[in-house]
Amino acid sequence: MAASKDTFEPLRLIEEKHELLDKDEINKLPKGLRGIYVLYQTTPNPKKAKIPFRNVVYIGMSASGIKGRLRKHSADPRKSEKWDTCSVFSVWPNVRVDEIRELEGILRHIYRFDAESQGMNNQGTYFKLKKTRDIELSDANRKKVESTDADEDEAEEYNN
Q1: DSSP 8-state symbol, 34
Q2: Hey, which of 81, 91, 138, 159 would disulfide with 95, CB 3.0 to 4.6 Å?
Q3: Contact of 9 with 88, CB cutoff 8 Å
Q4: What is the pTM of this model?
Q5: How far apart are CA 86 and CA 40, in angstroms?
Q6: 150 in Cβ contact with 75 (< 8 Å)
Q7: Among 28, 26, 51, which residue's Cα sits nearest to residue 37?
């Protein structure tokens, strides 16, 4: 059952987040954050000047200190000019390093064909995900019921 608007159900992996943090403010982050982070380059939005576009230029992880990784990216002359904003997603203490790595890998895999995000990303695809079985496509699958109205109602309630 989905949570009501008055209650909060914590995520299984992510404990805290800070989105769209300016590069000049990374020193305000606490030490020792573990999890994943995203680096963005801001570009103007011609339709909505107050809401600029944020292009993903890099997805990274740290098992011991996101703040230190962001400082490194900020100080590196090859990378520093490619981003101006970041988001941090800190995991719960019981989340293992391999789970953090998997989160990062899935996101990196999704963005592997994106021209913007490949500027700083040397790793490209996520090897373990490439080795994961593909979903089999067949005409028989077309005849199976994909979802019900109850599924849609639950998804709608969950997303509100």
Answers
A1: -
A2: 91
A3: no
A4: 0.77
A5: 6
A6: no
A7: 26
3-class SS of residue 31:
coil
φ and ψ at 141, to 5 degrees?
A: -65, -25
pLDDT in tens, the chain (160 residues): 455 566 778 899 999 999 999 999 999 999 999 999 999 999 999 999 899 999 999 999 999 999 999 999 999 998 899 999 999 999 999 999 999 999 998 998 888 888 877 666 665 566 677 778 877 888 877 776 666 666 666 666 666 6
- Which amino acid is it at 47? K
Q: What would the two tokens of residue 23 be?
A: 């590069």
What is the full DSSP assignment across 88-104?
A: EEEEPTT--HHHHHHHH
Neighbouring-strand partners of residue 111: none
20: left (phi over 0), alpha (psi -120 to 50) or beta: left
d(CA 119, CA 68): 21
